Every structure is written in C-alpha cells, then in structure tokens.
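Onboarding guide, step 5: your first structure request.
Type a short instruction followed by the sequence, for example:

Predict the 3D structure of this protein.
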Amino acid sequence: MPTTAPSPSAFGEGGNPTLAFADVTASDGALRRFLHGLPGVDAVGLEARAASLGTRSIKTTAKAYAIDLAISMIDLTTLEGADTPGKVRALAAKAVRPDPTDRTAPATAAVCVYPDMVATAKAALAGSDVKVASVATAFPAGRATLPVKLADTADAIAAGADEIDMVIDRGAFLAGRYLEVYEQIAAIKAECGDRARLKVIFETGELSTYDNIRRASWLGMMAGADFIKTSTGKVAVNATPANTLLMLEAVRDFRAQTGVQIGVKPAGGIRNTKEAIKFLVLVNETVGEDWLDSHWFRFGASSLLNDLLMQRQKLATGRYSGPDYVTVD
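The system replies with structure tokens like these:
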C-alpha cells in the first residue's frame, strides 16, 4: 500500500476514516495521486485465483453449515416498479421464516426495498431481528443532485431503514472527479450518522477495469462506507468471483493499514447454492473468519434463497423437492 495511508494508530478506538485521510482528501490532486498510487491489479492472477478457490470441495457437514450461513447473509431484495405493499409483506414473512415447515432454518439478514416501501417492511418485520435495507441516492443510476440524494436518504431513514444502499455517480468517477464522489459518499454517511449503516454500490460492471474497482473500493472506505457493494443488479455484469475477490483484498488491506473493518456485499447474478458457497470460500480464504458473519458479509439476492432452501432440504431428507417446495417471490 502507498506510504500516504495512515497507520492504525491514526484512528484509535472507533476512529473515523474521513478524519484520518484528511490529507489524502484535501484536494483533487492529492486524492488522485493516492488512488493512482495503489498497486495495479494483475487481472490474470486475480481471475486465476478466484477460479482456483471456486474448485474447492465442500463436504456434507461443511455444506450444511455453509448453506445456513449463506441464508443468514442474504439481503432478500425486491426492487421493481411493480412492487406492492402485499409483495413486500410476503417477502418480509419469508425473510423471518424462510422455510415455514422447518423452524431451524435461519432468518435472512435483511429485506431490501425502495424508500417508499420501507415503512411497510418495517411494520412487517416488527419483533424480528431482520433489518430493513433501502436503496437510495437516485438508485440505480445515481444521477441526481446531492440535495436530492440526501433527501432520498433522510426519507428512508425516517421511515425506519436500518441500512442504506447508495450508488456512486459512476460518470463522475470515470471522468476522474474523485473528490466529488468522495464528498457525496461522506455527506450520505453523515446523513446516516449512527442511525443506519451505509453500503456503497460501485456498479463494478460499469467501471471497466479492475484498477478502477480497487480505486473505488478505497475511495468508498475512506469516505466512511460501512460496506462496499459490487452492483445494483440492474446491469449486464454484476457480482463475479473476481471482482468480489478484489474487493475482499481491499477491505483486508484497509484493515491492515487502519484497523477499521469494512463489510462486503456482492449483489446480482448469484442464483444458486454452488455459486454462493464459492463466494463464502473466497471470504474464508481471503479475509478469514472475521468476515464470515452477516454483520460483515451479505448477498444481495432475490432468487438465491429458494435454491439454498431446496439444497438444505435435500441434505436433511436425501430427497430433492424441486421448485414447488418453496414459495414464489
């Protein structure tokens, strides 16, 4: 890592990254020098390692554990123009009790909805530990003024959101206006305060290069993100093992440099148990057990839960029940 990154002592207990990186973020030029001074990504090596880790064999006992862990890490998501209160209430019920026939199945981590559905989700989840996450900041394009983005965030939190999933302005980032992107993330984080955790979505499929994904990861973490997230799920290329591995390496290096731990959320395109377990292997082998918890790792998904439930039932009974075994979202 560049020598301009602060040491862990610069943060102290519960330190604030935005303060510790004050020198780095003092100007566009300083921030550009820092981000472009990050080590370049060996694309071939990154993809080869991601592919290699994906071939690991998982035995039955470990698979059962991994399935339950993956279920507990899901942000069960509906982000459609046709969303209704009834659909959100049904999704919330499924999040609390994914398998109505088996009370041992864990609840999901959160339900993720648009801001206007937060109050409905909050009421439906009352009394449970399932969080309400809300996309904000002109999701999914992120093309709005900062006052609009702040108002969007404030409305979601006022309605009861526990977590905010914001999108960065990819146009500003790709144009090299890093300080503008940094300041927007920091402003949204300030709006969240202690009321909501902030997940920062990069839309990795639009960032073009692995070097850009690494830069965006550090930019988001320095600005105060609690999580860095791959995608909105609304573009052709979403979460992949390679881009998620790169982001896991970024949070590992960030904690080594600063002492601050940041979560990771791959979202979009993870649809079955085999894929989900590959991502858990990436987590275990790259950042270790500290991140194998829903507080630090999430899956943004809608269809993944059903396949996990079917595989879970197969392990328990020896029979594969098929799609009729689970509810249709």
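Each response can be followed by summary notes, for example: The first strand starts at residue 74 and ends at 77.
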